[in-house]
Design a protein that fits this description.
The complex is a heterodimer of chains A (455) and B (623).
Chain A (H helix, E strand, L loop, with lengths): L5 E4 L9 E6 L3 H8 E3 L12 E9 L2 E11 L10 E6 L3 H13 L3 E2 L4 H8 L5 H12 L3 H12 L1 H25 L10 H30 L1 E7 L5 H9 L20 E4 L2 E6 L10 H16 L2 E7 L6 H9 L5 E6 L9 H5 L5 E3 L8 H12 L14 H23 L3 H18 L6 H9 L6
Parallel strand pairs in A: 1-7, 8-10, 8-11, 11-12, 12-13
Antiparallel strand pairs in A: 1-2, 2-6, 3-4, 4-5, 5-6, 9-10
Chain B lengths: L2 E11 L3 H12 L4 E5 L13 E3 L3 H11 L3 H7 L1 E7 L9 E6 L1 H14 L3 E5 L2 E7 L2 E6 L3 E10 L8 E4 L2 E4 L9 H10 L3 E8 L2 E3 L9 E3 L22 E5 L2 H10 L21 H7 L7 E6 L6 E5 L7 H8 L10 E3 L2 E8 L16 E3 L9 H19 L13 H12 L23 H12 L4 H23 L1 E2 L3 H9 L9 E2 H6 L5 H4 L11 H12 L1 H18 L17 H10 L4 H5 L6 H16 L1
Parallel strand pairs in B: 1-2, 1-9, 2-6, 9-20
Antiparallel strand pairs in B: 3-5, 4-5, 7-8, 8-9, 10-11, 10-19, 12-19, 13-17, 13-18, 14-15, 15-16, 16-17, 21-22
Helix pairs in contact in B: 1-9, 2-9, 2-11, 6-8, 11-12, 12-16
Classes of the chains: A alpha/beta (455), B alpha+beta (623).
């Protein structure tokens, strides 16, 4: 099977320091030679694997950029094919220009996930690893990157294996008991099945509950900051900005990802959004803005409601407290360095998480981060335990859980063990599928659908 | 000097359980058929246990009967005692087993072969097989030569057979028959991938030397159920079986003499089955177990030979006698035939298609122990498939391929030709993923239409089958349409069965759905129940109670069908697909799966390899 040589930008597209264009396929070096001029004249085609060259990118007789070319030879590369990586100075414009030159020199643009797909096809990684790579690439904070790494290392596999093994040994016992009725095999009892099922249900439910928290780690929480004008929203922003704003993961090939409205608080990514005030108004145009803000507020994953310690609650504050009833909220009381005029009880009636901060002293930052972690459920999330990190895994665990529950229900209904064995085997095959020990069309489709360009 | 002795459409080598079904099926389909046996008195011999059926094996016999095979009817005719195993464990694992009179079984089968139109039974050792004019030429020890269009090899443990008893070892077939030694060489010369397997059998003990007084008795079911859908009744059980246990002294004798076992001394190279180990194997591998069970089964009505199930051995005769005599009831036993291990040649079944025809040898088929299986029932099932296909091929018709979704027979064949066998293959209920659908009670529903279509189920039997199906449908409708009013009597029953009382009218079908209730207990409340055969009530009740599970399995069958509909090209070299791991390339090139479903069941082909195949198929389609 002869593959076309493909190319794509393999670093995230942003204002990063370095942009990498990866070319993979049997003509990778030849194509790179058409755009890359080695400073010592040597052709990349003549170079061995694991070597580097410094030179210029030339397109249409014009020098685009300086670049380092890394040469990899099949099968010792990410994709298992011949690979050339051109590292240039980065920047969206330059990187795009270089890619365009490479494509003009004979490479085809890589489809979404194609590098990883080739790596997978060439036996460079298995299914779970491939999925973990997607997560690493899209991981936006250290915690997320850590979780993704643990999946690859098998923390999740271990948790799944524990449940799978327990179910497998029960199913094996049931099979032996059915297939060798006259042998001296210990009777299978209702209790034995119920206990194994109960343990499996608890483990699988535990895993499922990590999914939402896992999502919070990976994708961030839609967060709204609300409060009266001058209540100190900007103080809060500054406080949170003290947290890392741009993230560099430890994973090579991923790069800085600076987004103005995204901050990282502890282990949690917050996607902050601004709100207009929440007051009623006669101005029709302003009212539209207010309505939109209200809607935003109702749908957010986290509300940070800011109050002024030095002033009593006003009508607007009461509106805010009402709105806080329906979404996870933290009340932030600013200006604690000033004399308190605020009836905190009225706030704590509605919002049970309260954090005091002071812009002047900088107090309250750690408490705020702790409160956010607790609310997002990530404080109890130990990535080294392995968590579910994508929808496919979640679906497998959910289906396995359903089957185990069915088995338990069947016992309680008084159904015979043959039906129970079959149900347990369904659960086992879901868990096997999850760790890639069995497969079906849908798995492959979903995996490759999720890959992004360049690794 | 060889001489030309005749010409046949189908020739069957071996008249054991596989050969018999193959020959009968081919002859009944109208092919001129010959069946060869080394010894006319060994037709349909049962050289091991005197019983037919058992877990999953009972399914095979019922399915064979539903397709038009012979084993079930003959077992019914020769039955001594019959038991439905696993009652109470659920309908999917109910399995029928019958103790049979082994001499009578052999005589009955021989007579059926003799009477069968289009079929000739001959005592002759086939010593040579060679390709000839698009067919095959068989040569006998007497130098007779037969030309045949198709050949079914069903040589059992005769092929290259060698018996081991302690230090004693000699070339032999089972039960002191001659082995087929030359044929093994001829098959090897032909290029078939042969290997050595081993199996074994326990001693036969003189009945009147056994003290039964303290032994547990095992009785048959009353009334006993037949295998065949055509057998109306079996009459009464004729014998009892008995159970005894080994003890510390038995174990001691084994441990003191284990060095004299040919297996442990390394003299046997053949691979034996894990699930049917010799007694010394059990002692060595499960050292913690203080005692092992032993079943004492009569070999027939007109013999005093008793079979010692669970106690096969290849230790020296004197050691055997010593350890048998440590067992309660056997203290003074007289051994009529010693236990022995037998090693034999068989073929790697992955060299065959699901029709049991060799991929590289058109017209050559294999069945039974020759294909790496073990057990009379497994052999008969394959014999049927091979015989039918040998005949269909001669007649230029489409082959018969049974599937995992319609039968245990299909599962057995698919396992053999796809996964191969690393040890003698035994059928088990756990080998079928669709076992709530593939039950022994509904074998007729699954397979009788197929048997009728190929022409092995008579029109009369088929009409009876259709009538039964119509009755079943009507009965289910009646259960849906009949409402039972609450009454004190009914609620008393419900409470006594630990299920909830009713306060309003309830449909009969909803009462039967409750696991705690059955047809029998509802009789007083079900006045208009029609008079149907018991098997039909059984089927209806199971289908109602397990409806949800059956539906779920049918869905899984559909999913598997989708993968089976993704066809792989033939004649493709998988070495060209670089994404495949080396082992997968080799396995795929050897087994040549017809579709993705089959490929996914090959051991050594991982899910990642299947993904590669799927992606490759998808990209091929795009182009």
């Amino acid at each position: 099977m002869k593959n076309q040589t493909i190319a794509a930008i393999s670093t995230a597209q942003g204002e990063g320091g370095i942009g990498v264009i990866r070319i993979s396929g049997s003509n990778a070096a030849a194509i790179a030679d058409r755009v890359f001029q080695n400073i010592n004249q040597r052709k990349l085609s003549d170079m061995k694997g694991y070597t580097a060259a410094f030179g210029k990118i030339i397109a249409g007789g014009e020098e685009l950029d300086e670049a380092v070319a890394l040469v990899f030879r099949a099968p010792h590369s990410y994709t298992g094919e011949d690979v050339v990586e051109l590292s240039c100075h980065g920047g969206v414009f330059i990187t795009q220009q270089v890619l365009r030159a490479v494509l003009a020199a004979g490479a085809s643009p890589a489809e979404a996930g194609e590098f990883t797909k080739r790596a997978f096809l060439n036996g460079k990684m298995d299914l779970t690893e491939a999925e973990a790579v997607i997560d690493i690439i899209s991981a936006k904070s250290r915690s997320a990157a850590r979780t993704a790494l643990f999946v690859k290392d098998g923390a999740l596999s271990r948790r799944i294996t524990k449940v799978k093994d327990a179910l497998l040994s029960l199913a094996a016992h049931l099979s032996a008991w059915a297939d060798y009725p006259e042998e001296d095999i210990a009777e299978v009892t209702d209790d034995m099945i119920l206990n194994t099922c109960a343990a499996a249900i608890s483990d699988l439910e535990g895993l499922l509950s990590t999914y939402d928290s896992g999502q919070a780690v990976k994708q961030g929480i839609d967060t709204v900051i609300a409060g009266r004008p001058n209540v100190g929203k900007s103080t809060l922003m500054n406080l949170l900005s003290g947290c890392e704003k741009s993230i560099v993961t430890e994973i090579p090939g991923t790069t800085r990802d600076v987004v103005e409205d995204t901050v990282v608080a502890g282990d949690v990514i917050l996607r902050l959004s601004d709100t207009a005030g929440l007051r009623d108004t006669d101005d029709k145009v302003e009212q539209i803005g207010v309505d939109r803000a209200k809607k935003r507020l109702e749908q957010c994953g986290l509300l940070l409601a800011v109050f002024d310690n030095s002033r009593p609650l006003e009508a607007f504050d009461y509106h805010l407290l009402e709105a806080a009833q329906s979404v996870p909220s933290i009340a932030i009381i600013n200006k604690t360095d000033l004399q308190s005029q605020l009836d905190v009880n009225k706030i704590s009636d509605k919002i049970n998480k309260i954090v005091y901060i002071s812009a002047v002293t900088g107090d309250g930052r750690d408490e705020l981060i702790q409160a956010i972690s607790e609310l997002a459920g990530t404080s109890e999330l130990n990535p080294s335990e392995g968590i579910l990190s994508n929808e496919r895994q979640r679906a497998n665990v959910a289906a396995a859980l359903t089957s185990v529950k069915e088995a338990k229900a069947a016992i309680e209904m008084g159904l015979t063990y043959d039906a129970i064995t079959v149900t347990l085997e369904d659960a086992i095959s879901e868990l096997l599928e999850m760790t890639g020990e069995r497969t079906s069309d849908e798995v492959i489709d979903r995996v490759f659908h999720n890959f992004c360009v360049g690794k | 000097m060889t001489y030309f002795a005749g010409e046949y459409d189908v020739a069957v080598i071996g008249a054991g359980h596989a050969g018999i079904e193959a020959a009968l099926a081919a002859a009944r389909l109208g092919c001129r058929t010959a069946i060869f046996t080394i010894n006319m008195d060994a037709v349909g011999n049962c050289p091991c246990n005197p019983s037919i059926g058992g877990t999953a094996k009972g399914h095979l016999v019922r399915e064979l009967d539903a397709l038009g095979g012979e084993m079930g009817k003959t077992a019914d005719a020769c039955f001594l005692q019959s038991r439905m195993l696993n009652r109470g464990k659920g309908p999917a694992v109910h399995s029928l087993r019958a103790q049979i009179d082994r001499r009578k079984y052999s005589d009955t089968m021989k007579h059926k072969l003799e009477l069968q139109k289009n079929l000739e039974l001959r005592q002759a050792e086939i010593t040579d097989i060679e390709a000839c004019d698009g067919g095959w030429l068989l040569t006998t020890q007497m130098l007779a030569q037969y030309r045949c269009k198709s050949v079914v090899v069903a040589t059992g443990t005769y092929l290259g057979g060698r018996i081991y008893v302690g230090e004693v070892s000699y070339e032999s077939g089972p039960d002191g028959m001659f082995p087929a030694t030359k044929l093994a060489l001829s098959l090897k010369a032909l290029g078939l991938p042969l290997r050595r397997f081993k199996t074994g059998t326990p001693a036969r003990i003189l009945r009147r030397s056994i003290d039964f007084s303290d032994l547990e008795v095992q009785k048959g079911d009353e009334p006993p159920q037949p295998f065949s859908y055509e057998t109306e009744s079996l009459g009464e059980n004729k014998v009892d079986c008995h159970i005894s246990w080994t003890n510390d002294r038995t174990k001691q004798i084994i441990l003191e003499n284990i060095h004299r076992s040919p297996l442990y001394a390394g003299r046997i190279e053949g691979v034996g089955p894990r699930y049917c180990p010799s007694f010394e194997d059990k002692v060595m591998r499960f050292a913690d177990k203080p005692r092992h069970q032993l079943f004492i089964e009569p070999c027939g009505e007109n013999t005093e030979e008793m079979y010692m199930q669970g106690m096969s051995s290849s230790l020296p005769e004197e050691v055997q006698l010593k350890f048998y005599r440590t067992i309660k009831g056997l203290e003074h036993c007289v051994m009529m035939r010693p236990a022995y291990a037998i090693e034999y040649d068989c073929v790697d079944p992955t060299a065959m298609n699901a029709t049991l025809e060799f991929k590289d040898y058109p017209g050559l088929y294999g069945a039974g122990q020759f294909n790496g299986s073990s057990g009379y029932e497994e052999a008969a099932a394959q014999g049927f498939v091979a015989g039918v296909n040998a005949a269909l091929k001669v007649q230029g018709k489409e082959p018969l391929v049974l599937t995992r979704a319609n039968s245990y027979i299909g599962t057995l064949v698919d396992d053999l030709v796809t996964k191969g066998a690393n040890e003698p293959y035994r059928m088990m209920t756990s080998r079928s993923e669709y076992r709530l659908v593939l039950r022994q009670d509904n074998a007729d529903e699954r397979l009788t239409p197929i048997g009728h279509e190929i022409g092995l189920i008579s029109e009369e039997r088929y009409q009876k089958f259709l009538h039964k199906q119509a009755q079943k449908k009507a009965e289910i409708k009646r259960l849906k349409d009949t409402t039972i009013a609450p009454s004190e009597e009914l609620n008393t029953l419900l409470v006594s069965r630990e299920t909830s009382e009713i306060t309003t009218g309830v449909r009969l079908i909803d009462l039967l759905k409750r696991p705690q209730l059955d047809y029998a207990c509802l009789t007083p409340f079900d006045k208009d129940r029609p008079n149907l055969e018991p098997n039909l009530f059984e089927q209806v009740e199971i289908e109602i109670k397990y409806e949800g599970y059956i539906q779920k399995q049918l869905k899984q069958v559909e999913q598997m069908k989708k993968l089976e509909n993704k066809l792989l090209p033939t004649g493709f070299d998988y070495k060209e697909l670089k994404g495949l791991r080396l082992e997968a390339q080799e396995k795929l090139n050897r087994i040549k799966p017809l579709n993705i479903g089959q490929a996914s069941r090959i051991s050594g082909v991982s899910p990642a390899d299947i993904s590669v195949l799927l992606i490759w198929l998808a990209t091929k389609k795009e182009k």
